[in-house]
Amino acid sequence: MFFELIGTLVAGAAVALIVWAVNRTLKGRLPSWLVPVSAGAAMLLATISSEYSWFSRTQASMPGGMVVADKVEERVFYRPWTYAKPFVSRFVAVDRASLRTHPEQPEQKLVDLVFYGRWTRTAKIPVLFDCAAGKRADIVDGIEFGDEGEVTNAQWRDLSSEDPILRAACKET
What we know:
There is one protein chain. The protein is of the alpha+beta class. The chain has 2 domains: 59 residues, no CATH class; 105 residues, Lipocalin. Helices cover 34% and strands 32% of the residues. The strands form 2 sheets. The chain has a 6-stranded antiparallel β-sheet with strand order 1-2-3-4-5-8, with helices on both faces. A two-stranded antiparallel sheet has the order 6-7. The mean pLDDT is 92.
């Protein structure tokens, strides 16, 4: 966040300096308001660029085995450009490298879900999916696993067969 602020300020200062130099070369023929307006426009464009590139930058820096399962695109009234093209503000990735199964319960897959958000901390949560039944259970205190892989004390939630997180977790590699 700090580096983005610095980058935005540098973009504004650089454009203001360029417009000032052009105006000085033209011996003051440009309007006096052009320097601060161009600096503000450069800062706004730098902020918008950073906002729209966040998802692709974050996705490119994810470790191997991570699959983006679902993303949230936002439209906000105080950012009118988002109505033309919404930006990704947060997303969920399935850590396929963390996938674990029990030989006796091949349809149950335990994976880590990683929640990414713009300006928020990344959170990793282990989740158990029953791919055959289309259910999900968060791994929390009180859940126990038996010798045969059976799960007790789990709070199962039914999911749609089209749920993108379920599909990403249960996808065969």
